[in-house]
Design goal:
487 residues; alpha+beta; 13 helices
Length: 487
């Protein structure tokens, strides 16, 4: 019997798990994928929004501003990259600048500090590559950029180190209310085993599937629409094309196509916003990428799209009420929803974690731990060391002198760390998200065989079981001689 079962190991579920791990509670996280940060949290704009867009009085507005203010401390405690590069919402000659007044008023009501409207002269000095038609912009200095992979993993690893159990490759099949709480029937997709897990409370952080979890138990039905956003990622050689995050005036479908640097030195352009029926539809499309290329030119001129190294798509969980759904279900005691977490969900995650954990504390009358450790140490990046320190590191551990990923200059030492740390990598994508091995210009064309060799040796798993992204994504189907015999 667990005190708390959290369904979903994205940034929301992981943040909640970390904050609940402050208390003397037996907690676990159930995740149907093979790793944390494997769905919505891995494919987004990587933006920490200032909080001027959300309608005042909504959960989005409250938790966005609260989460933004927490980010400096969270980044320090979890050892994750974060930068307040500021954001600009630009207006062109064809647009009505009154939209800025709406955003300015919302921002003031939401408590966003430092908002200013800048004229064209001030803008060009700040961002010389803005489109010629841009006339003015709203400047928000508290806007920032973060690595969503590291943020999610930082939360999850810290939760794990503070006693939270994680069940990966574990799909929730059925939920039942019992006298003492809930019975959760799960299926382990890696070994085919079915199991029953019992718990006092359920926290529903299942992303685009949160309505399906809620609706198994509650008569207060939720309906979540999967909203696809496609992106293009550009090479580091053009990562400084803009310094701030450049938005366009938002619409009812979202904040529009943005152009932004990333914390790792790339340039990111996107997303589109298209509602889709299939909650697994993360394919990119020619129409979507063409739209990004066309629309981004409205805010930034001559975006160097010839330097695109990859494109990708993610899904946002849009709930019909157009707000986060956070709190205990009105008709099912012990069912706590953290649903409809679309933009600004990444920005709000720190605040959602605290809000839900405090609710759990009060419902279970939980005591705080005296030995909770808020600090997590990330993977060592040799580039942060001086030449003398790096030479000493290689002398002590030669693996840090063996470059595996030439594009990103990732060493064997970093990959070994990614595999052996808490909730370590078990797939190529797991290594990639933790270390960036495979994220450079060649997109893992050179380094993937070496990474597979390291995984085979360190995890002691057969090479034909190593996949790109867990069960069903294996690369190798057999040995040449065996295949010849079959023919």
């Amino acid at each position: 019997m667990f005190d708390v079962v959290i369904i979903g190991a994205g940034v929301t579920g992981s943040a909640i798990a970390r904050e609940i791990s402050r208390y003397k509670l037996n907690t676990c996280v159930i995740e149907k994928e093979e790793d944390v940060c494997n769905e919505t949290s891995k494919a987004n704009s990587a933006i920490i929004h200032a909080g001027f867009d959300a309608v005042p009085g909504t959960m989005k507005a409250k938790l966005n501003v609260m989460g933004n203010a927490m980010m400096d401390r969270i980044a320090e405690e979890l050892d994750i990259p974060f930068k307040r590069n500021g954001s600009l919402v630009v207006c062109t000659k064809e647009q009505d600048p009154e939209g800025f007044q709406v955003l300015m008023e919302r921002g003031k009501k939401n408590g966003v500090p430092g908002l200013q409207i800048l004229d064209k002269e001030a803008l060009i000095e700040k961002e010389p590559n803005l489109a010629d038609d841009v006339t003015c912009a709203l400047w928000a200095p508290t806007g920032g950029i973060v690595c969503p992979f590291h943020m999610t993993m930082g939360y999850a690893e810290n939760a794990y180190e503070n006693g939270v159990r994680f069940f990966m490759n574990t799909k929730v099949e059925k939920l039942e209310k019992t006298g003492e709480g809930f019975r959760v029937q799960v299926h382990h997709t890696d070994n085919g085993v079915d199991e029953i897990i019992e718990t006092k409370l359920i926290i529903n952080a299942a992303g685009v599937y949160a309505d399906e979890i809620n609706n198994q138990l509650s008569d207060r039905k939720l309906h979540i629409t999967a909203r696809k956003g496609e992106y293009m990622l550009l090479d580091k050689t053009v990562g400084d094309y803009v310094k701030s995050t450049i938005f366009q005036l938002p619409s009812k479908m979202g904040k529009g196509v943005l152009v932004t640097p990333t914390v790792h030195g790339n340039l990111l352009v996107g997303p589109t916003a298209v509602n889709v029926e299939d909650k697994g539809a993360v394919n990119t499309t020619m129409n979507g990428l063409d739209q990004i290329a066309r629309v981004c030119s409205h805010s930034v001129k001559n975006v160097p799209l010839r330097q695109v190294i990859t494109s990708f798509a993610g899904l946002r969980a849009h709930e019909d009420g157009d707000d986060f759904v956070i709190g205990e279900s009105a008709d099912v005691k012990g069912l706590i929803n953290a649903a409809g977490i679309e933009s600004p969900g990444l920005s709000s995650a720190p605040a959602i974690g605290v809000t839900v954990a405090e609710l759990v504390r009060d419902l279970l009358n939980a005591e705080e731990k005296s030995d909770f450790n808020p600090v997590r140490h990330g993977i060592l990046d040799p580039d942060t060391l001086s030449l003398e320190e790096r030479n000493q590191l290689i002398k002590e551990n030669p693996a840090y002198g063996n470059i595996i990923c030439r594009c990103e200059m990732i060493t064997e030492g970093e990959i070994l760390d990614a595999i052996h740390r808490p909730l370590g990598a078990r797939s190529l994508d797991g290594v990639k998200r933790r270390t960036r091995a495979g994220m450079g210009r060649c997109q893992s064309g050179f380094c993937s065989p070496k990474v597979m060799e390291i995984l085979e040796k360190e995890v002691q798993m057969p090479v034909d079981q190593i996949g790109k992204n867990g069960v069903g994504s294996e690369f190798i189907v057999g040995e040449n001689k065996e295949l010849e015999e079959v023919k």
